[in-house]
Amino acid sequence: MTPNGVEDEEKFLASGIAGIQQNAFHMHRALDSNNLKDALKYSAQMLSELRTSRLSPHKYYELYMRAFDELRKLEMFFKEETKRGCSIVELYELVQHAGNILPRLYLLCTVGSVYIKSKEAPAKDILKDLVEMCRGIQHPLRGLFLRSYLSQVSKDKLPDIGSEYEGDADTVVDAVEFVLQNFTEMNKLWVRMQHQGPAQEKKKREKERSELRDLVGKNLHVLSQIEGIDLEMYKETVLPRILEQVVNCKDEIAQGYLMDCIIQVFPDEYHLQTLETLLGACPQLQPSVDIKMVLARLMERLSNYAALSTDVLPEFFQVEAFAKLNSAIGKVIEAQEDMPTAGVVTLYSSLLTFTLHVHPDRLDYVDQILGACVRKLSGKGKLKDSIATKQIVALLSAPLEKYKDIDTALKLSNYPHVMEHLDDTTSKEMANVLVQTILKNKTCISTDEKVEALFELMKGLIRDLDENLHDEFDAEDFKEEQNSVSRLIQMLHNDDPEEMLKIICTVKKHIVTGGPKRLPFTVPPLIFNSLKLVRRLQNQDENAPEEETSAIPKKIFQILNQIIEALSSVPVPELALRLYLECAEAANDSDLEPVAYEFFTQAYILYEEEISDSKAQVTAIQLIIGTLQRMHIFGVENRDTLTHKATGYSAKLLKKPDQCKAVYSCSHLFWVDDQDSIKDGERVLLCLKRALRIANAAQQMSNATRGSSGSVLLFIEILNKYLYFYEKGVTQITVASIQSLIELITTEMQSENKTADPAADALLASTLRYIQFQKDKGGAVGEKYESIKS
Amino acid sequence: MNYIIGAFKPACNISITFGDGKSRKQVPLKKENGQTVMVPLFQSQENIAGKISVEPVSGKKVEHNGIKVELLGQIEMYFDRGNFYDFTSLVRELDVPGEIYERKTYPFEFSTVEMPYETYNGVNVRLRYILKITVSRGYAGSIVEYQDFVVRNYSPPPSINNSIKMEVGIEDCLHIEFEYNKSKYHLKDVIIGKIYFLLVRIKIKNMDLEIRRRESTGSGANTHVETETLAKFELMDGAPVRGESIPIRLFLSPYELTPTYRNINNKFSVKYYLNLVLVDEEDRRYFKQQEITMFRLEETS
């Protein structure tokens, strides 16, 4: 419409309103003076303004509302007039003398309303007459408003059950008949609008029609308010009649809207009992009608209804709601060949929601739905359509949310097939949802098959599905997502070691394909989970025969070895080293010397070949020493080899202070308190002396390069070691050696070119304090310390 | 007014009172001068009786050659003005020639008068009944007084009253079937009917039902036909589609109708037609005219 047209329309509306006001003024005067003849004349003239064809529905409505208000006053007047003794029958005839049909019918409806109230004639006769007479208006817009007026004035006068208008002759059947007829006629008019006027204004017409739809839908609302409509009647009369009209009108807008109306206005239990009829209408609708919306709404309502109370569930079973809905959806999809995939999936998704609410115990239904969905999607490959994708995600998420238990989803054989149709990104997202659900609900996945299924589902997270995707890759997200996966791996558990072993194998099988980016995330949790099993077996050892249980740890360690080896491709030698050491320690606890040795070997190889960064080397050495110190299964030979190597590595560190620290740490390798076999004081002393030498060298080097002697910190640390071993009773550590070391330190501290080092001061102070403390303690320890002077 | 008329009116006042004047129904009648007066209503075969008084003006005597009252039924054609055709003429002599000195009253009676035709005021023709009182005088000219009255005749409901049902149309354009519940209606009747649209290929804007009166006067080459539309009653607003049926309910009481008159005294006829008119969006009119017979039913009230 051109702006000019809008202006014109405003003008027409203004003149229409003016006409109404002017005639209403005269009408009021006539009413005030009880001049019936004039009142009728002016009211008819006033209503003539509604005969205009120049207004859009919106503006026409405005005009109509003005007239409507005036008609209320006229109705009051008619009511009083009949009280004054004017025959309502005569009045009913009198208004029909008007020559123009539109004013005539408005007046007739108005008087008709009073007539019904007077109860001088059966309500049904008057209603029937009114609804019949209204046929005279065939103009869609004017007809719709007139009939809407009729509906408005009559809705409180229907001979409903319990209504004052109910009588022998007037039953609820008549009320229903009346509303249905009015509805049918209004719908016809509404549909007809679509086919009138030029084709290029189709869009505008559709807009106008949608503005008017509530006028039509109101009738269904009125119907739903009629108390007397019981299920029987709804089933036998009301619904079939409405559907007949809906189907026969062959109009897209009307069908979509009215189906929705039916679903919204009538009670759920009625829908449930008439599912067959209601669903039967769906395939008969126009192909362009959005049936999926209609069905989705229906299922949503039924779902909510089912969710409301469990008392109603038997009803659902009784009417086989699922089977009916399922078959209806099938038919609709069949009937509408060009329905977009998104639509299909939406339908199945709604059905799924419904099923989950109504039949939470029927997992087979859920699988059936997924299966149907898969069949429909087959051959379509990955979906490009974002809406369809979203719907599939909804479809897949629904069971997870409902059951809060991934177990269930894993039992659904069609679940992965559906997922296959997701594109890689979404598939990953979906996998993420899966994982999050598991984590949130702390679900324990306990069988091999389930783990297999689960990992199959989340393969998007486990490995790269498409090489090209790396570009738009968010490191932060990736980390987040991989952390979730590792948390998930931690949660896999089964009490049965055999089964658990299988699970571990399965997980391993999946994660080794993950590529260098994922391995550092996925390997450690698996290793630790495996070690957890190992430890569990150790605890059980006491009651189980040795041969059987020990088979499993061995197998596990083999697997572990393979897994850690996989890390070499990354490469993350530090991590691998740590893991090797962890494993070695576990093997130690399982009394598997060769295994432990092998792990150590691997760790050493890594150290030698891969760890070249000096800082990393320091850390690695610390770890190696720490672990080795705790190992107790090694035979003398093996242990010698390993400790020898370790001390060797320590001495070869780059920085002197590091060397020194590593070397004095090595001293612990030769003296383990609770291991009688490892009490080699000689070698301890050797290590400490060597450490002292290195400390000296370090200080000299510092002198040479910086002109100041380095910190005495190293000496103090070595002193602490001395004290430790002295206390432990290593005979090679003598009071004299301690004494001389203390002296050395004190001299150093007082030397002139000493650099201030508060840490060293503090450590020395606390060391001395410790000595004093031990002395004060007395007893055997006190005695030992007594000989040390400081 | 009366005073002035009195000045020209010689000699005496003549007044007529009907015997049952108080109880008899009075109906309005339009006079030539446009005024409406209330006059008594009779029907055929009734006795028309009453009193006529002649009163000389203030003491003068009136000399006359006799006094008579005539009952005349006249048909007057407007295009032939002044020509009355008396189809009924009855005379009663009231007095022999003589003189009147004072008010004198004469009873009169026309018993079971045959008045087959109704009073009618048409476009070109008028049928009226009058009582004409003549005081004949020789040289001074007669004194004449007229009294109009109305005659209406009632018919019983017809024993056969078929509905009018007809299918009409323009080929491939418009086919309708209409039905009026009767072919004969009384004056306060209601026309009930229906119009079915069997085929609609034109864009109809609205549909009216008209009541038309066709008055034909004269005969042969001198026949004058005048058609008036007495009612224009909108039946439908907007364009119907195939299969629609539109109800008709037209109350006849608001309209000034008369019974159908067929060949009244070979002078005129009045016939009624229902004209169904459909108007399309280009204001073309499609119509079908059907004659209906009107009759007067005795009113019970």
TrEMBL record, chain A:
Membrane topology, record value: Peripheral membrane protein
InterPro entries: Vps35 (IPR005378), Vps35_C (IPR042491)
GO-annotated biological processes: intracellular protein transport; retrograde transport, endosome to Golgi
UniProt key word Protein transport: yes
Keyword Transport: yes
Keywords: Cytoplasm, Endosome, Golgi apparatus, Membrane, Protein transport, Transport
Major localization listed first in the record, in broad terms: cytoplasm
Subcellular location: Cytoplasm; Endosome membrane; Golgi apparatus, trans-Golgi network membrane; Prevacuolar compartment membrane
GO cellular component, one term: cytosol
Role this protein plays: Plays a role in vesicular protein sorting.
Family to which this protein belongs: Belongs to the VPS35 family.
Family matches, as PANTHER family: VACUOLAR PROTEIN SORTING-ASSOCIATED PROTEIN 35, VACUOLAR SORTING PROTEIN 35
Protein name in UniProt: Vacuolar protein sorting-associated protein 35
Naturally occurring in which organism (per UniProt): Solanum pinnatisectum
From TrEMBL, chain B:
Presence of the UniProt keyword Transport in the record: yes
Keywords on record: Cytoplasm, Golgi apparatus, Membrane, Protein transport, Transport
InterPro entries: Arrestin-like_C, Vps26-related
Membrane-protein topology: Peripheral membrane protein
GO biological process entries: intracellular protein transport
Pfam families found in the cross-reference section: Vps26 (PF03643)
Any one GO cellular component localisation term in the record: endosome membrane
Locations listed in the record: Cytoplasm; Endosome membrane; Golgi apparatus, trans-Golgi network membrane; Prevacuolar compartment membrane
Keyword Cell cycle: no
Function field: Plays a role in vesicular protein sorting. Component of the membrane-associated retromer complex which is essential in endosome-to-Golgi retrograde transport. The VPS29-VPS26-VPS35 subcomplex may be involved in recycling of specific cargos from endosome to the plasma membrane.
Assembly mode: Component of the retromer complex which consists of VPS29 (MAG1), VPS26 (VPS26A or VPS26B), VPS35 (VPS35A or VPS35B or VPS35C), VPS5/17 (SNX1 or SNX2A or SNX2B). Component of a retromer subcomplex consisting of VPS29 (MAG1), VPS26 (VPS26A or VPS26B), VPS35 (VPS35A or VPS35B or VPS35C).
Similarity field: Belongs to the VPS26 family.
Protein name as annotated: Vacuolar protein sorting 26
Naturally occurring in which organism (per UniProt): Solanum pinnatisectum (tansyleaf nightshade)
Organism placement in taxonomy: Eukaryota, Viridiplantae, Streptophyta, Embryophyta, Tracheophyta
